[in-house]
Amino acid sequence: MSIWSQAKDMAAVTPDQRNRYVDFLRAASILVVVTGHWLVAAAYYHDGTLTPGDVLELQPKTQWLTWIFQVMPIFFIVGGYANAVSLESARRRGIGYAGWLAARLHRLVTPLLALLLGWAALAATMYFFDVSGDVTRLASRGALIPTWFLAIYIVVVMLAPLTYSAWRRWDFASFWAFAAIAALVDIAFFAAELKWAGWSNYFWVWLAVHHLGYAWRDGRLGSPSRLLAFSTIGLLVLVFLIFKGPYPLAMVGSPDEGLSNTLPPKITLLALGVFQFGLLLSIESPMRRVLSGLRLWAATVLINSMIMTLYLWHVTVLVIIVAFAYLADGVGLGLEPGTLEWWLSRPIWITVLYAVLLPVTFLLAPLERRARDAGTPVPSAARQVGGAIFICLGVAYLALFGFGSAPLPGLDIAAFVFVVAGAFASGLLPGTR
To answer: How far apart are CA 98 and CA 114, in angstroms?
Structure first.
């Protein structure tokens, strides 16, 4: 049976009470992220030299596009909705925190381990073939940038029972508490120049955004007109912060020297999330009717069944294609980035990348879909949390620096060992459960 037939069969038996729009937004947001990353990549081959580039830096006027392509807030909001549903389900079935966390970590970490193991093997091969450590670092860092999301999202998942309890007890006051802390951190970052404090906004900003998913799940967001009002407020706040405050225009990356909305996160991402979320939720009812059709819903089911694999491997595919193009005397990379010809070639470029990514995804996605073996002992909560923290620390380093040319000798190897040790402690490796 083909994978499309399997998706249609799964779609046909979907319970009526399932909110299909949640799954649709998750799938759509990941496709937007993947396409956006490929669109801004601007490698240029000229006179035998390959120059990596970013169109956001080469053409600053394009930075407004990131207000469309930065949809990670949507993914965190959808995550909040999904975590609320899973916590409610676990409570009904009498599943404790350890059992709940084991299932969540299994789905998130298993495809991540496949990517990191693959790049560790590739980095070791490049080392033994005397490839420059700088080249290895550049390639692996680019390929592993998507893993930053899991480094923080795993922490958000581990805290979900606490944050959901806070939401159920204090309602929107808990959301405003996280938002207020995030704003204070930004004030310290800019006014007091406490740059180190800004890194804590990986928690406060994304916990606040994640909280909006709880509000959605509880039906606390009101009518479409009210949602559009929220969206308008979010947009106005964002515009004020960008054009009257110290924040850069781009919502992705660091095209402005020394300043970024994402590294570390700023409250601009929260304002962007409110803007996008209010707009998208205002059309929830008609979209749920559209998703009642089998074809679109089956496509949504298919993408969600391999969503982490698709996301984690998309930059690796880009790196490999660029490497082969370079070895082939720069075929496909000879157009100067930012020119009219270069922009007109982007649909072909993105089509080629999807043509390579999809087979890779189909090959590796069974790892993501494989459920925990029935009857497998569940590691203790303390063991899982400790292991997950090790995983997050290792992943955070590799997302920042990759393999090769580590700031300190062997630090990349230590980070990889942290990930493996964390997976072992959490019972996520075969034979460790």
So the answer is: 24
